[in-house]
Specification:
about 400 residues; alpha/beta; Rossmann fold; binds ligand C2E; binds magnesium ion
C-alpha cells in the first residue's frame, strides 16, 4: 500500500515500514521538514512504488526487520532498478553491527532505533545528498521543471530565504587534534547562516541543490573561508568541504580566486561518491592539486563502494564517518574495520581523521586502532572564530 503524497519541498522520500505507527511518525517528521513523503507497508510495495513512480525519490528510508522482503533484501532489489538512489536503513538491533552489514548490503547509511526526530531528519537530508553527480544533475533538472509550474509561489519564497541565508552566511570552525602532539593540526570550516529557516547546513545545501545554486553557495563559502583565514592561528591547516557539483564550477580553478591563493594550506574535503564518477573526479582533482590543494575523502564508511574513492582520488587525508567512530570502544567489529582502514591509508601514504569523537572511550579506541587525528565534541564544538581545545 502506498499512501498519498504530502507536501513537496526539499525532495521526495519513500518511507518503508510494516509498523504503521512507526511509518506515520517518520512520515510526519519528514513532511514537517518539507519532504514530500510516500509510504509503503512492505518491501514489495516499496519496489512497486519505485518502479512505477513518475518522479524520482531522493531517499528510501526503510526498516530492516519486515516480513517478506527485509531491509537488506530490499536494498539489493532497489539496486537492480536504480544503482544510485540513497537508501537509509533503520535498525532496532544494535547488536546487528548495523554499520558493517548495512553498508555491505549497498545501503547508503543506517540509523539505530530509537532516534530523535532531529537525528532522523538530519540522516535523511544527509543520505539524500549522497548520490552520484549524474543523479544530482537529473534531480536539479526535475526540480527546476517542477518549480516552474504550480509551485511558483513556493519557489519565490525559497529564493527569498536562500538569498537571505547567503547574505547572513558565516563559517564555524572545529579543531582537528593531533593526539601525538596534543596540538590543533587543522580546523574544518562548516557553513552556518543566521537565516532562521535554514540554520541546519543540510537544509541549506538541499535548498541550494533544489534551486540549482550550488555554485553560488560554494563561491560564497570559499570567499567566507578566505576572509576568516586571516585570523587563523599560524601553521594550522584549513579543511573546506566541497560539494560534488561544485567540482563543475570554473571559479574553483581560478588561480586568483580568494581561496586558491591559500591553496597550500587548504585541504578540500570531497565525499566519496564523487570519486565514483572517474571522468569528473580524477581530472578535476588533478587540477585542484596543481593549484596546491590537498584532498580529503570525507565520510568514509558512510556510503557504499567507499574504498573505490581511495583508488581514484589517492587522498592525502581520509576522514572516517562518525557512524564508524560511534561506540568504537564497545564494538570489536568496528575496531577491526577502523584499524584495517588506518593501516591501508598509512600504506597508501595518507593520514586518517576520525570524526565525531564524543567520549574518552571513543578517543582511546581511535588511538588504539591507529588513528591519531581526531575531531569531535569531546575536543570542541564548531564555533565562530577558532575555538581552542578543551579535552
Ligand atoms: P561533515 O563534513 O562530515 O562535517 C562533520 C559534521 O559533524 C558537522 O556537522 C559537525 O558539526 C558534526 N560534528 C562534529 N563533531 C561531532 C561530534 O562529536 N558529534 C556529533 N554528533 N557531530 C559532530 P554540520 O556542521 O551540521 O555539517 C553537516 C554536513 O553538512 C557536513 O558533514 C558537510 O557534509 C555539510 N557541510 C557543512 N558545511 C559545509 C560547507 O561549507 N560546504 C559543503 N559543501 N558542505 C558542508
Ligand atoms: Mg567534512
Ligand atoms: Mg564528515
Amino acid at each position: 500500500m502506498a499512501g498519498g503524497e504530502r507536501k513537496l519541498h526539499l525532495g521526495r522520500v519513500l518511507v518503508v515500514d510494516d509498523d504503521p505507527a512507526m511509518r506515520r511518525t517518520c512520515g510526519r517528521v519528514l513532511a514537517l521538514e518539507g519532504w514530500g513523503v510516500v509510504e509503503a507497508d512492505s518491501g514489495g510495495a516499496a519496489l512497486e512504488t519505485i518502479a512505477t513512480a513518475k518522479a524520482m525519490f531522493d531517499c528510501v528510508l526503510s526498516d530492516v526487520n519486515m516480513p517478506g522482503l527485509d531491509g537488506f533484501a530490499l536494498v539489493a532489489k532497489v539496486r537492480e532498478i536504480d544503482d544510485d538512489i540513497p537508501v537509509l536503513l533503520m535498525t532496532g538491533d544494535p547488536s546487528l553491527d548495523g554499520a558493517v552489514k548495512a553498508i555491505e548490503s549497498g545501503a547508503v547509511s543506517y540509523i539505530t532505533k530509537p532516534f530523535a526526530s532531529e537525528a532522523l531528519a538530519a540522516a535523511v537530508a544527509r543520505a539524500a545528498r549522497r548520490h552520484g553527480v549524474a543523479r544530482m544533475r537529473r534531480r536539479a533538472d526535475s526540480y527546476a521543471r517542477a518549480l516552474g509550474g504550480a509551485d511558483a509561489a513556493d519557489r519565490v519564497d525559497l529564493e527569498r530565504r536562500f538569498a537571505n541565508a547567503l547574505e547572513r552566511l558565516w563559517m564555524a570552525f572545529q579543531p582537528i587534534v593531533d593526539v601525538a602532539t596534543g596540538r590543533v593540526f587543522a580546523y574544518e570550516a562548516l557553513v552556518r547562516t543566521d537565516e532562521d529557516s535554514l540554520r541546519r547546513p543540510d537544509l541549506l545545501i538541499a535548498t541550494a541543490e533544489r534551486l540549482d545554486r550550488i555554485h553560488q553557495l560554494g563561491r560564497t563559502i570559499r570567499a567566507a573561508v578566505a576572509r576568516a583565514a586571516a585570523d587563523a592561528p599560524d601553521g594550522v591547516e584549513l579543511f573546506v568541504n566541497v560539494h560534488g557539483l561544485e567540482l563543475g564550477d570554473e571559479e574553483l580553478y581560478e588561480p586568483n580566486a580568494a581561496l586558491s591563493r591559500l591553496a597550500p594550506r587548504v585541504v578540500l574535503e570531497i565525499t566519496e561518491r564523487v570519486g565514483l564518477d572517474p571522468a569528473i573526479g580524477t581530472a578535476r582533482v588533478g587540477m585542484l592539486r596543481k593549484l596546491g590543494y590537498r584532498i580529503a575523502v570525507d565520510d568514509l564508511g558512510a556510503g557504499y563502494a567507499a574504498l573505490g574513492a581511495l583508488a581514484h582520488l589517492e587522498p592525502e587525508i581520509v576522514k572516517l564517518d562518525m557512524s564508524l567512530v560511534r561506540d568504537l570502544d564497545r564494538s570489536a567489529t568496528k575496531r577491526r574495520v577502523v584499524a584495517a582502514i588506518a593501516t591501508l591509508c598509512r600504506e597508501l601514504g595518507g593520514r586518517v581523521v576520525a570524526e565525531g569523537v564524543e567520549t574518552p572511550g571513543e578517543r582511546d579506541a581511535c588511538i588504539g586502532a591507529g588513528v591519531e587525528l581526531l575531531q569531535g565534541y569531546l575536543f570542541a564544538r564548531p564555533a565562530r572564530g577558532f575555538p581552542s581545545v578543551t579535552s
